[in-house]
Design goal:
10 strands; globular; Arc Repressor Mutant, subunit A; 180 residues; alpha+beta; 6 helices; ADP-ribosylation fold; 3-stranded antiparallel sheet; 2 domains; 4-stranded antiparallel sheet
């Protein structure tokens, strides 16, 4: 499968496993899983046929490891805007985590902290490099440091998805460290 096709399949899966499964008639279980055969049939019925081999290549080859396959089912690892319980245990975060954004988002972040926006959680990275790549998707990146250790001590619950993305309900401004 060429890179263009891989990106198209990955975006299609993201859309329907994270945001709009009903658009193709798929229903996620409470933890975000759907039977692979059901998903493939629904995709084909809606004009976007995906082979099982393509699906497996996208899951294995996605650089961000956005998807998980288990027991004949698939789900997105995080980033949902539809209600799901990923059933991730609370975890102790490292002292600092990082969030990539862009300059135009700094004013609202300085006023309100980090909010999940249309998702269930704020997404944080364990390293600056990953946060930089995340921020660069929307323009010139700005990396914010999050005092995750202090947040944890103050009772905020962190979870980590299977692909290493740290999730938290919100990050109040007092825990953010802005560059410069």
């Amino acid at each position: 499968m060429d890179d263009r096709r891989m990106v198209r399949v990955s975006k299609y899966l993201s859309r329907h496993l994270r945001h709009d499964p009903g658009r193709i008639g798929v229903e996620l279980d409470p933890h975000g899983w759907v039977v692979v055969d059901t998903l493939l049939a629904a995709a084909a019925a809606h004009g976007f046929a995906i082979t099982r081999a393509e699906l497996e290549l996208v899951v294995a080859g996605n650089d961000k490891q956005r998807f998980a396959l288990r027991d004949g089912r698939i789900r997105a690892n995080q980033g949902h805007s539809v209600p799901v319980d990923l059933d991730l245990p609370v975890a102790v975060p490292p002292p600092y985590l990082y969030h990539g954004t862009v300059t135009r988002s700094l004013a609202p972040i300085r006023a309100e902290g980090l909010r999940p926006m249309g998702r269930h959680h704020v997404h944080l990275s364990a390293d600056r490099e990953t946060a930089t790549r995340v921020g660069a998707r929307r323009g010139r990146p700005v990396v914010l440091a999050v005092d995750a250790g202090a947040m944890h001590e103050d009772g905020h619950a962190f979870r980590v998805s299977s692909n290493g993305v740290w999730l938290v309900d919100a990050v109040p401004v007092t825990y953010l460290r802005f560059p410069g």
